[in-house]
Write a structure and sequence with these properties.
Shape: globular
Number of strands: 0
Structural class: mainly alpha
Number of helices: 8
Largest sheet: none
Radius of gyration: 17 Å
Oligomer: single chain
Number of domains: 1
Helix content: over 70%
């Protein structure tokens, strides 16, 4: 989070080898969460309903797994976790839809906050991460750079498509 850069200034200069206390553990726990959620989706949803989320989770598990195993790029993984702030509002929105509350003020407010946090925490974070990867291409080993670049090339269109679907569903019916 932004305050982490203030509390741990080295993070803003070195996302490869520097991370705040507990950062490595947070990324490791996140791998566990994405693994558990993947198993849950495989057991409780049809594949055609959940393939996009499973694909997303696979990319995150690979990237975070590399970070956890190498004890490197933990700072970069922590930056990517900013996207999960938006997940709160995505999930609240989904719960309201499943509860047939789509025509309520609560849903409308959640929808607006969801779109706002989507732009700030997903789109802007992905853009920043892509920029960081591009600017640091000389300092990142080719294999790691390739994994990062391919991941950004997968995540960015997925998030843009989801954003379009959200806008179409909630604002342009």
């Amino acid at each position: 989070s932004p305050h982490r850069f203030c509390l741990h200034p080295g993070l803003s200069e070195d996302l490869v080898d520097t991370h705040p206390p507990g950062g490595h553990s947070l990324v490791a726990v996140s791998v566990g969460y994405f693994l558990e959620d993947s198993v849950d989706l495989l057991c409780n949803q049809k594949l055609h309903q959940s393939w996009e989320v499973l694909f997303h989770h696979s990319v995150v598990i690979v990237c975070f797994g590399i970070s956890v195993l190498l004890h490197q790029y933990v700072g970069f993984a922590l930056v990517s976790l900013l996207m999960e702030i938006n997940s709160i509002f995505l999930h609240v929105r989904q719960i309201l839809l499943m509860s047939n509350l789509a025509h309520t003020t609560c849903y409308r407010l959640t929808s607006i906050v969801n779109v706002g946090t989507y732009v700030v925490f997903r789109i802007a974070t992905l853009a920043w991460m892509s920029r960081w990867l591009f600017l640091n291409r000389e300092n990142v080993p080719p294999a790691t750079h390739t994994v990062g670049t391919v991941s950004m090339a997968i995540m960015t269109p997925m998030n843009i498509i989801l954003f379009y679907r959200l806008l179409r569903s909630d604002f342009f019916k």
